[in-house]
Amino acid sequence: MSPSQPDHRYLLDNARREAGERFTWLAELFDGVTRGHLDRLGLQPGRRCWEVGAGGPSIPQALTAAVGPTGYVLATDINPAWLDPDGGYEVRRHDIVTDPPPPGTFDLVHARLVLVHVPDRARALATMVAALRPGGWLLIEDADTELQPLACLDETGPAQQRANRLRRAVRELMTRRGTDLRFGRTLPRALRAAGLVDVAATGFFPFGGVACDRLEASTVRMLRADLLAAGLADDGEIDAHLAAIDASELDLTLAPMISAWGRRPQARHGGTGHIGSADGW
Questions:
Q1: Residue 260 and residue 182: Cα distance in Å, rounded?
Q2: Which residues of 80-107 are buried (b: 16+ CB within 10 A; e: fewer)?
Q3: For the segment 99-142, what is each residue's pLDDT rounded down to a tens digit?
Q4: DSSP strand E in 149-211: where?
Q5: Is 249 domain-assigned?
Q6: 245 part of a folded domain
Q7: Sign of the torsion angle spanned by Cα atoms 185, 191, 194, 198
Q8: What is the three-class DSSP state of 42?
């Protein structure tokens, strides 16, 4: 690839063997937050849901349980290898940027930690909005790394300083691949610009614990070759960082995740606008 051509390949590719471990710890950290938003929006049996860029199976499973046998859940990903074709939801390969929306419309469309990595975010967002039925909700959750760029907030010694150097190196890799490190904060504005109403947002900031440690370790192992090839780290500091994680020497943290939601306006008069409201969407 020539220097004049941007490299938009997905840095955290599902095809890499560490992806499954990352999905496990992402679910541990964020599934409770996501399920809380789904409850707030009033997801009920019989609804149709589209999980975009699903990655692992945990949220498709949660949606399937919420909508019950009378509902329908579609889980898509550019590489759906980690999804369960026998999990009670439909699995389909789908590129949110280049492919049209699936047939039919949905009561809920959800994407978590997807758009931040997509170069044409506006087109992807428009595809998801187009898939909503009148009154349907779009829930987008994405990181804002610029809001909190450190791996260790309490930089007390060499191990913490090394962790923060490596986090800066990972951020540099992400920027080179087209990631918008400020994207999370733009979500409410983006949803309003897409024509949605009743837009609101909140943030979640994970700090410390086993899940942060294990997610950091799996991510660094996944990106090791890329960091070395780019000259952003060497084997010695990567090994020392992984050893410090294994020894529980670091209080690691992540970028805040911003969750924003809005609904497509009703074709006619609406009620409360919630999924389970008496107006039937």
A1: 14
A2: bebbeeeeebbbeebebeeeebbeebbb
A3: 999 988 999 999 999 888 887 889 999 999 999 999 999 999 99
A4: 197-204
A5: no
A6: no
A7: negative
A8: coil
**Cβ contacts of 114 within 8 Å, gap of 6 or more:** 52, 53, 96, 124, 142
Query: What is the CATH number for 27?
Result: 3.40.50.150
**In this structure, are residues 76 and 54 in contact, taking their beta carbons and an 8 Å threshold?**
yes
- What does the pLDDT look like over 31-45, one tens digit per residue? 999 999 999 999 999
User: At 1, which helix (H) or strand (E)?
Assistant: none
The pLDDT confidence band at residue 177, using thresholds 50, 70 and 90, is: confident
What range does the domain containing 44 cover?
Answer: 19-146+179-207+256-263
- Rounded to whole angstroms, how far apart are CA atoms 192 and 13? 30
pLDDT at 190: 95
Instruction: Give which of 166, 49, 147 is closest to 105, Cα–Cα.
Output: 49
Into how many domains does the chain fold? 1
- Rounded Cα distance between 46 and 43, Å, is 9
**pTM to 2 decimals?**
0.87
